[in-house]
């Protein structure tokens, strides 16, 4: 229901239900519902909804304000007849009640009258203590309920804003608007819509006057000195103490303190965690007030703020905002101050650092003597902008730098901007371009003559990046780059972030080459170096933690991997480094998928998608959608996974990080959806036809083998499916790790020649999966065991395994596994055990029967099995007796009809002992 508002009421179902409940119980006596809400949370909007609903329910509704409250109450009838309609009195902004309004309200609360529902809206921070006590005090003559409005959650915020936002604004909406409807409306009004909005972050953009007016009206309602101090606080743009406010506002301390009291009472400013300091109740309000300050006064105020900070010797970032706003072109001191501030802020606030580097370059004189310094500043600005996902700003900075180059300079010095240019190419998915940029830069640096020579740390960083992105086709060259990078980083900063990164990259290459012990050693060394780093050093090289955590995931060191992913993700979020946050969230989601923790994986995958919308390129978005598709395959319908994977394929650039990942995800989803031919066509078009040579890491090659095996088996290409399963076994054996071994054994179970072989493979898969805590794979192994037992006619044991598989699916949140278990359970219900024990042969008898069915003579059978001719005759006699037959042709007929089964070897008890030991 809506009541004159252009937006529907969202996220207030609990409050509406409480009011309706009190209304329905008015026969038991009058009731009070107090609704406490901070500014902008929509108390007035909720009260309007309540009034409309109550009127529709047949009540006499009286909606009023504190000023009109005495008149409204005087107009109410003195008594209400039993048959009269209920009365609903709604008072908004009760915190403003004073004098006559307060006395009238006290009378209403003391004697509300039968059949009366009182609904009061107020701001608790602005409510005088005495009035607040009266509102919340119990009363024997009425029932009372107090409701505290909470900010909207993320889903509610997105619903409130509607579908017309660009990706960047939508991703930042809940974070920047704090779930406050009035702020959400402001943010939505500032967005021009998908495809047209530049996506500037809140705080650096302007807002339509109509959307800003309600917030600015709060400041306009203040006294002149309070407005002046609010303007000063907006200029300072940070928690401010009275002395700073006095210096900027041009007032004495006593006047400032009096104004602060007024601002606190109006809830424009609030006390903050820093003792003696105040700040705006929300940064957006401060930004709006700053934009509304008269331009001349604002310029002078920034100069006063800069002087104040310099006199107190504050760190450069504290004064950088004011230098940026007040310095004139040609101010070399201002440029130096901004550059120093940017260097200090790069680890904690790269977005501000990018702006300050750009401003510093703009302030420097245009004389040729300053061109080199301006180029350096613009290159740094591009690097900082890319850290926070602003590819557009980085491109602008690099283009401005290019304009400062003479014709003779354009061929040299490319190495100075190699990293930002390469990262721009990576964001666009152009990995070949990124590699070429780094190779050229490395060649340029290594060719520089003495005495300066190449910078060892810069060359080590380039080699690390090249090794990390070289791909399987250049494994030897990548290994050489990684070795050189580790040596150089260790020689010039052992234990640093670059050293940890180089070790992680080398370990990843070693793991891909099957050198597991060496990879494990690199992972431990890299973890030791990374764990010793302070947070600011980690923030400057988050890709070190990303590569380390992915290496640890591949080595099945899940605890350290989760810790490093989480530390990196927390740092990336806190510093606004959205490309890194996307990769780290996606990596953590993949780790949780491997463990079978699907609900947690889904949450991290969604976080990766949100971060990717701020990451400034299609490649991060494709990466995030790939992991979302993998999650959807396990926890949603296959059709959902297909749709998400196709969206990833549409974004992934050829030869980009996500090109092959997106095709793998789509092929897996198509196979699960029943389109095996489509799955094979997707892989062929990638091209991904051979796990042994595919340009994928070890986990990707194993996943490819799984898809190929399943798809080929589904279309009747049994031999090709077995070949893919064999490749999976080889890949798993190369790693020597339990997780890949379990997955390969599960494939072997699906393509086994008979139930006994499938049973053996599934038992081994269960042991391997349990050893690493892969809960979903344990469930899949149980399912494979159940299917094998069913084929052997052992329905009771099959049922036990199906029950265990169902429990595993429920614990993991694995809808896909649950569907497979349900199908197998339905199949088991229609299967009966063999009617006669005579159809169950020993393993040796079954082997001989198979050879007989192939036309082998007794001597041929003896040679094949390595036994004597007499032994074969003895076994044949037992087979004829058990089956009550007299000819070899009848044996062949029964084998062909699958009416003979082999009794499995006794393996249950050893398996159970192994499982207990592994747990």
UniProtKB/TrEMBL annotation:
<feature type="region of interest" description="Disordered">
    <location>
        <begin position="309"/>
        <end position="334"/>
    </location>
</feature>
<keyword id="KW-0067">ATP-binding</keyword>
<dbReference type="InterPro" id="IPR000792">
    <property type="entry name" value="Tscrpt_reg_LuxR_C"/>
</dbReference>
<feature type="domain" description="HTH luxR-type">
    <location>
        <begin position="834"/>
        <end position="899"/>
    </location>
</feature>
<dbReference type="GO" id="GO:0006355">
    <property type="term" value="P:regulation of DNA-templated transcription"/>
</dbReference>
<dbReference type="GO" id="GO:0005737">
    <property type="term" value="C:cytoplasm"/>
</dbReference>
<dbReference type="GO" id="GO:0004016">
    <property type="term" value="F:adenylate cyclase activity"/>
</dbReference>
<protein>
    <recommendedName>
        <fullName>HTH luxR-type domain-containing protein</fullName>
    </recommendedName>
</protein>
<dbReference type="InterPro" id="IPR016032">
    <property type="entry name" value="Sig_transdc_resp-reg_C-effctor"/>
</dbReference>
<dbReference type="GO" id="GO:0003677">
    <property type="term" value="F:DNA binding"/>
</dbReference>
<dbReference type="Pfam" id="PF00196">
    <property type="entry name" value="GerE"/>
</dbReference>
<dbReference type="InterPro" id="IPR036388">
    <property type="entry name" value="WH-like_DNA-bd_sf"/>
</dbReference>
<dbReference type="GO" id="GO:0005524">
    <property type="term" value="F:ATP binding"/>
</dbReference>
<feature type="compositionally biased region" description="Basic and acidic residues">
    <location>
        <begin position="321"/>
        <end position="331"/>
    </location>
</feature>
<keyword id="KW-0547">Nucleotide-binding</keyword>
<dbReference type="InterPro" id="IPR027417">
    <property type="entry name" value="P-loop_NTPase"/>
</dbReference>
<dbReference type="InterPro" id="IPR011990">
    <property type="entry name" value="TPR-like_helical_dom_sf"/>
</dbReference>
